[in-house]
């Protein structure tokens, strides 16, 4: 399968993911390329990842992981980072989540919205988790909700119908890719910023350089001319 180059006909992106580290496990190298090209990129985290470190209570882990996410964003040139404060580990798909995301889409007015894999499985075949599935489905629906003035009236201001693309990172069915050879080191630095989380995680996924390089090498085999790449399933809205 050959992946298509990611389109360039957009100017503002909003990244919406469930947890700190979700975008850094493969997608932040693309964000760095976009920022280098002058694109505006903002992040929205549904949770603060407070249930993600077994050795720390949520009251300690949440602020710690928020700080790590802000550092991870800074490594790829992103300074606008918001958190919704839904509960980590038990994100519920439903109207409150759709409303909260739609409000930020109306405020940020993106052309491109990026989220994480919300299919049942990862490309490896491993099962996905409910937080990712529920967040991604809510993001898809919120892109439509944001443009309808009669849905969630008053949430986030005036309707925004300008979302042209929804891009899904980590999808088992990628269609497009971004060459991240020039920004790979910054992708590694971005994931490495999650120091406490990686230390608690252990295993192969706790080695940012090795993990990201292995993933990016596989994707690059499907993008002509690239040595390292990030794949996305891209939907035109």
From TrEMBL:
Superkingdom assignment: Bacteria
Gene3D superfamilies from the UniProt entry: LmbE-like
Coiled coil (residue ranges): none
Cited SUPFAM superfamilies: LmbE-like
This protein's UniProt keywords: Hydrolase, Zinc
Gene Ontology terms, MF aspect: hydrolase activity
Pfam (any one): PIG-L
E.C. no: 3.5.1.-
Name this polypeptide is given: PIG-L deacetylase family protein
Organism listed in the record: Pseudonocardia lutea
């Amino acid at each position: 399968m050959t992946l298509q180059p990611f389109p360039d006909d957009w100017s503002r992106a909003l990244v919406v993911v469930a947890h700190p580290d979700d975008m850094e496990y493969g997608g932040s190298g693309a964000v760095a390329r976009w920022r280098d090209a002058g694109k505006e990129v903002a992040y929205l985290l549904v949770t603060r990842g407070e249930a993600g470190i077994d050795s720390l209570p949520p009251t300690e882990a949440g602020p710690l992981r928020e700080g790590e996410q802000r550092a991870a964003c800074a490594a790829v040139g992103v300074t606008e980072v918001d958190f919704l404060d839904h509960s980590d580990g038990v994100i519920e798909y439903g109207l409150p989540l759709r409303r909260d995301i739609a409000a930020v889409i109306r405020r940020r007015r993106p052309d491109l919205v990026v989220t994480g894999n919300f299919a049942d499985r990862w490309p490896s075949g491993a099962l996905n988790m409910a937080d990712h599935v529920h967040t991604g489905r809510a993001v898809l629906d919120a892109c439509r909700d944001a443009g309808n003035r009669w849905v969630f009236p008053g949430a986030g201001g005036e309707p925004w119908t300008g979302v042209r693309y929804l891009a899904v990172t980590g999808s088992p069915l990628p269609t497009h890719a971004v060459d991240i050879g020039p920004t790979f080191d910054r992708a590694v630095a971005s994931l490495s910023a999650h120091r406490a989380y990686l230390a608690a995680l252990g295993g192969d996924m706790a080695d940012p350089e090795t993990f990201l390089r292995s993933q990016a090498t596989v994707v690059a085999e499907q993008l002509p001319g690239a040595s390292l790449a990030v794949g996305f399933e891209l939907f035109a809205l």
